[in-house]
Automatic annotation (TrEMBL):
Signal peptide bounds: none
Domain EGF-like intervals: 136-178, 184-226, 232-274, 280-322, 328-370, 376-405
Gene3D superfamilies per UniProt: Tie2 ligand-binding domain superfamily (2.170.300.10)
Key words of the record: EGF-like domain
Keyword Phosphoprotein part of the UniProt annotation: no
Name of protein: EGF-like domain-containing protein
Molecular function GO labels: scavenger receptor activity
InterPro entries: EGF, Furin_repeat, Growth_fac_rcpt_cys_sf, MEGF10/SREC1/2-like
SMART domains with a match to the protein in the record: EGF, FU
Keyword RNA-binding: no
Protein species of origin: Elysia crispata (lettuce slug)
């Protein structure tokens, strides 16, 4: 094919030559994906950035591969040069009055070059097609150029180079080794298959999938996402790190550790086990719930509440403050120990014991029953009030007072007649008589 134009239509610059070549390639490469063009070293025609840019633009838009090869200096004779010589010889001595004359004169039959014998499919090389196409050429039956063995449809994944015989270097994979192994492939330098990028040693913790590019879904972590976040991670849906399972919002009360799988040790409770069980929890070592600190065996006497940290109110004592202080505790509002109910200020008169709930035994009275009833209280065993010692059955003859401890004064007699008391006056104050039965100690006056 020849392209002709006159000075009115164009010049002899790289733009015109590039346009002709691109037009030719557009028409001829409809059924081919790869083409090799041979050029001489003429700079303004073939070896310039205009033609290079045009070829690059063509290959990108048409999804084709064009390889331009330049003849060595001193060996630039090509078959097309004979065509040029034939045209020049034909036009010699011809008067040219219009471009049409040149066009007609250029249409001369030329000697067609003998085609090179083409290698069978799968073979290439200039010497009897001795070489085989690479088994890594992409496409059915691994098609390659019968001239230089370049793969016509590119390379299979995992290989690169013109003949697709170069395996992808470590860290690369896929068609022409354009892709990089995932940074989440386990192992030194993230090794992966040079063909499909599958990680050879599995995935780093927190990732899954053949190429380890999928992050673990919520609630999962570890190698290939095989592990589940602890149910004791704090927060909605127990969120944890997809790599090591550490709980992102800390632990639920009662648990500790990076993954919140360690229950609080005995005596501890709450978030990350920061709190201690109350020392007032009942039982050995004060056991309490590892979650909320509630005392498992109730409270020690004198305390109440879930965690047994509330002391009994005034007037109460014992386990969970169920008992009331004795009304016989001495003092305002009957104060007693919130633990065992022992009266802090002793007992009211007439009572004894730690809690002042024991009434004084017969014959005793007063604070803590320290005092004894008067031996001059009338009646069997000298009964008296357990509170103030007042004789319940009055006094023996000769004694008076609430507790019958006062002896009658000289000249007086106290005698019990039925249920009444009668005082007898002795005529002579100086004549003494017994304070018990009134008998005259010095006898009777005359008469």
């Amino acid at each position: 094919m020849c392209y002709l134009w006159n000075e009115a239509e164009g010049s002899m610059s790289a733009n015109e030559f590039a346009s002709c070549l691109i037009d030719y390639l557009t028409e001829k490469m409809l059924q081919f994906n790869r083409c090799i063009i041979f050029s001489d070293g003429c700079t303004y025609q073939n070896r310039n950035h205009v033609l290079a840019s045009a070829l690059r633009h063509f290959c990108k838009n048409q999804d084709k591969t064009v390889e331009q090869k330049f003849l060595e200096r001193g060996h630039t004779q090509m078959e097309v040069d004979s065509v040029h010589a034939t045209i020049e010889k034909k036009l010699k001595g011809v008067e040219i009055h219009s471009p049409l004359t040149t066009s007609k004169s250029s249409r001369v039959p030329g000697k067609q070059p003998e085609p090179l014998p083409e290698c069978p499919s799968g073979k290439y090389g200039v010497k009897n097609c001795q070489k085989s196409c690479s088994t890594h050429c992409a496409g059915l039956r691994n098609p390659c150029s019968h001239i230089d063995g370049s793969c016509l449809s590119g390379c299979d994944p995992g290989y690169k180079g013109k003949t697709c015989n170069q395996q992808c270097p470590s860290g690369k994979y896929g068609g022409n080794c354009q892709k990089s192994c995932s940074t989440h492939c386990a192992g030194l330098r993230n090794p992966c298959s040079h063909t499909d990028g599958s990680c050879l040693s599995g995935c780093d913790p927190g990732y899954k999938g053949k190429t380890c590019n999928q992050q673990c879904p919520s609630g999962k972590y570890g190698g290939n996402c095989q592990k589940s976040c602890s149910t004791h991670c704090a927060g909605l849906r127990n969120p944890c790190s997809h790599t090591d399972g550490s709980c992102l919002s800390g632990c639920d009360p009662g648990y500790k550790g990076k993954t919140c799988n360690q229950q609080c040790p005995s005596g501890k409770y709450g978030g990350n086990c920061q709190k201690s069980c109350s020392t007032h929890c009942a039982g050995l070592r004060n056991p309490c719930s590892h979650i909320d600190g509630s005392c498992l065996s109730g409270c020690d006497p004198g305390y109440k509440g879930k965690t047994c940290n509330q002391q009994c109110l005034s007037g109460k004592y014992g386990g969970n403050c169920q008992k009331s202080c004795s009304t016989h505790c001495a003092g305002l509002r009957n104060p007693c120990s919130h633990i065992d109910g022992s009266c802090l200020s002793g007992c009211d008169p007439g009572y004894k014991g730690k809690t002042c709930n024991q009434q004084c035994l017969s014959g005793k009275y007063g604070g803590n029953c320290q005092k004894s009833c008067s031996t001059h209280c009338a009646g069997l065993r000298n009964p008296c009030s357990h509170i103030d010692g007042s004789c319940l059955s009055d006094c023996d003859p000769g004694y008076k007072g609430k507790t019958c401890n006062q002896q009658c004064p000289s000249g007086k007699i106290r005698r019990k007649l039925s249920k009444e008391l009668q005082l007898l006056t002795v005529l002579d104050f100086r004549n003494p008589c017994s304070h018990i039965d009134g008998s005259c100690l010095s006898g009777c006056d005359p008469g």
